[in-house]
Design goal:
There is one protein chain. This protein has about 160 residues and is mainly alpha-helical. It has 2 domains: about 1-75; about 90-165, no CATH class. It has 9 helices and 5 strands; from the N terminus they run H-E-H-H-E-H-H-E-E-H-H-E-H-H. Helix 2 crosses helix 5. The radius of gyration is 17 Å and the shape is globular.
Length: about 160
């Protein structure tokens, strides 16, 4: 919250790539409203969501609140290719490790994949079939691409070709 306040006090704006449901975002926006009541969150808080599924599993109260209170951007699903956003879910994609030339970046990706595999479908968590089959799902990154205006990437292989170096 400290960083958010600093940005908003300097007339900055907050962009949220909503990597999941809106329940957390709703709680965050309510805290911002309580602590900074003069801030017009509809103009200064921008939320980007790519997934119908995420919207469906969000509490209706939270989703309605976030859509009505913030500058809410619903973009095409980042799980699919060819719909205007990068498709970053790919069950059969392997060899991505060979595309990453920076050892520190490779270490981060390897760790992320290991963590994803370790917790995927465990203890009542969502079982992502793409991850379970040994592929990748970083579809929430489509929201970040939208925020930064990155429009030249079609899918995961193109992502690693462009950003793996």
């Amino acid at each position: 919250m400290k960083k958010i306040k600093k940005v908003l006090h300097k007339d900055g704006e907050i962009w949220i790539a909503e990597a999941g449901q809106s329940d957390f975002t709703a709680k965050l926006v309510k805290v911002i409203q309580a602590e900074l009541p003069k801030i017009d969150v509809s103009q200064r808080i921008h939320v980007v969501q790519h997934s119908d599924w995420n919207e469906k599993v969000t509490s209706s109260e939270s989703l309605t609140f976030v859509k009505a209170t913030t500058d809410y951007h619903k973009i095409a699903d980042g799980n699919a290719v060819g719909n205007g956003t990068p498709g970053f879910q790919i069950p059969e994609y392997t060899g991505w490790e060979n595309k990453i030339t920076d050892p520190e970046l490779l270490e981060i990706w390897v760790l992320a994949v290991e963590i994803g595999l370790e917790y995927n479908g465990k203890d009542g968590r969502y079982n992502n079939e793409a991850v379970a089959s040994g592929g990748l799902d970083f579809s929430d990154l489509s929201e970040v691409c939208y925020i930064f205006g990155i429009q030249n990437i079609k899918d995961a292989p193109e992502f690693f070709e462009e950003y793996g170096r």
